[in-house]
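Work Package 3 (structural annotation) set out to generate three-dimensional models for the target panel prioritized at the project kickoff. During this period the team completed the workflow that converts sequence records into discrete structure tokens, so that structures can be stored uniformly alongside our sequence database. As a representative example, we reproduce one entry of 297 residues exactly as it appears in the project archive.
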Amino acid sequence: MHCMMILSIAANGLILTPAAIADSGMVTTLNVRYAEAPGVTAGAQSLDIYAPKGGLKLPVLVYVHRGSWSGGDNRAVGAKPEFFTSAGWAFVSINYRLLPEGKHPTNVEDAAHALAWARSNIAKYDGDSTRLFVMGHSAGAHLAALVATDERHLEAAGKSLDIFKGAIPLDTNVYDLPTLMKVGAEVYKKVFSDDLQVWRDASLYYHVVSGKKLPPFLIFYSCGTGVTGEAEVRAEQAEAFFSALREAGASADVFDASDRTHSEIDEWFGKPDDRVTARAMGFLNSLAGKAAVKPAP
């Protein structure tokens, strides 16, 4: 599939401030520790929970933030908490260890423990643990999808792949690192070293095999990447991952969102008339067994 023409529209990421949270009308529970690894700061292994007032047994979307595995924060989620809670969902945004401490596999281990915590505890916050979904953008998309394909990380946290109802990676490129490295993507060596075995271990593609209880996937990609050499392989890698999932017997779909840049695919999520949002919510609501709900203006 070919990438569509990129629109040049500026959009800035938004950080959800305490004042904005207070004014939103959501029920919020902030800075919840999901793990306590020795020497790790509380914030690096914490999550925030947002739910609509009066909600009960809500489907749950766990979100993994972007930041090239070296930056970002779980409050930098724009309007997603308000969007999801107004649509009748519980929204959980997680932190994880960042570089230099958060090299692979430390970061994905944190994500797995956060998701395992959500499975075991979200009912206390009006969430339905049997309707648990994971979504992430960029580095977060990689971690979300890796937890949902490489069962070892969840098993180490006491869970299995069948905790997921569905997974949405919002534009990652770490499907097949050995292939990606051939175009000179040196930026990835900071988190994945220069070891071929580590590259394979961190690649989504190599964990997709028949017989696993892989969740349904909705894969988004945009060719508007700022990393030299990546645009040429981004669509190809996303399509290859999609094909591998289908061949392994998993439900999967892929969506070219190259009418926006890599950042905008995340920043526009939840905006009225955004086609990525509409496609994602159709996927989520259908698997959650609930009718589509138009968020309040």
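Residues 4-23, 292-297 have pLDDT under 50 and may be disordered.
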